[in-house]
Design goal:
Keywords: Metal-binding. The chain is mainly α. 49% of the residues lie in helices and 3% in strands. The chain has helices at residues 25-51, 63-84, 115-133, 142-147, and strands at residues 2-3, 14-15. The longest helix is centred in the N-terminal third of the chain and has 27 residues, at 25-51. The protein has one domain (2-147).
């Protein structure tokens, strides 16, 4: 799963928040949990970008190679943290250079999908919305934070 924002199209592999005009209680909880996940990813990516120059510009590689590079840098980052402690030091950044141009601006063409894919994506997001509101998928503090400034 990929966590996106409103600018991205809804896909089965790409989650985005519900539009503000369509929010009910379950969707509001989903949006809150989505935002928390996105913030965690952005924070982690910011740490990686401060240490590894490859993340400071578009990667011009195939998606499978980008995954390998990302996993390698995460592993390297964790190895450094384990060895040196939890200090984040910009002076220990590592420069990688990739010269595998895969298209204009490093973007690869995406296959077109039909309406069925959009329906499937809505089902995935709906199922997560249900799960986050269910006792088995909720966290004890989410309702207090989500509904604290909402008048019923």
């Amino acid at each position: 799963m990929v966590i996106g924002d409103e600018a991205f199209p809804l896909k089965t592999y790409l989650l985005k928040p519900f539009a503000a005009r369509t929010l009910n209680a379950k969707r509001r909880i989903y949006n809150y949990r989505h935002l928390r996940a996105r913030r965690a990813v952005e924070c982690a990516f910011g740490i990686l970008a401060s240490k590894f120059e490859i993340f400071q510009r578009p990667m011009r590689v195939e998606p499978d190679k980008a995954i390998i590079i990302t996993k390698a840098t995460v592993g390297h980052h964790n190895l450094i943290r384990h060895r040196d402690g939890n200090m984040i030091d910009k002076t220990s950044s590592i420069v990688y250079e990739i010269r595998d141009n895969t298209g204009r601006d490093g973007l690869l063409p995406l296959a077109r999908t039909g309406c069925r894919a959009a329906e499937d994506a809505m089902k995935v997001r709906g199922a997560l919305s249900e799960f986050f509101s269910d006792p088995s998928g909720s966290v004890y503090w989410q309702n207090d934070l989500v509904f604290r400034n909402v008048s019923h």
